[in-house]
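Reopening this one. Same input as before:
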Amino acid sequence: MTKSFITPVGFADAHQGLAHLFVRGLTVEAEIGVWSHEKGRRQIIRLDMDLAVDDTRSAGDDHGKVVCYEWASNEARDVIASGHFNLVERLAEEIAARLLCDPRVHAVRIRVEKPGAIRGADGAGIEIVRLATRSPEVLP
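Same output, byte for byte:
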C-alpha cells in the first residue's frame, strides 16, 4: 500500500503505518520580526509540531528505533538559533524542511505563534502542513 495524504492529512493511520508524534507549546526565545523594534532583540515564540512518522509498533521499547519528540524539539531550536527571521512563515518552513530530512518523517504540521503580537489577542502566527517529497514507500 502506498502512503497517500488526502486532505485532511492523516498524522496517525494504522493502515498506512503512520504514528502521530507531537510537541505542544514549546516556548523558545527567537530573533524574529520585520519591524525596527523587533531587530536586535529576542522575543518569545510558541511552537506546536505534529509529525506523521513511521509506526512504532515494531520498535518495542527501543528508543533508538523511533522518531523522538526531543529530537524534533532540538531540531526546531537549532533552526531558531541559526539567526534572525523576519517572518514566522519562513521560520515555519525552515523547521518543516529540517524535520522532513529524516526519512521516517512523512508529513509535518508546524505552528509558529508570537504571543502578544496583536493587542488584545493571545497570539498570532502561521500554521503550515508540508509533505515529504521523496517517493513514498510501499508497505508490505
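So the earlier flakiness isn't reproducible anymore. For the record, The mean pLDDT is 87.
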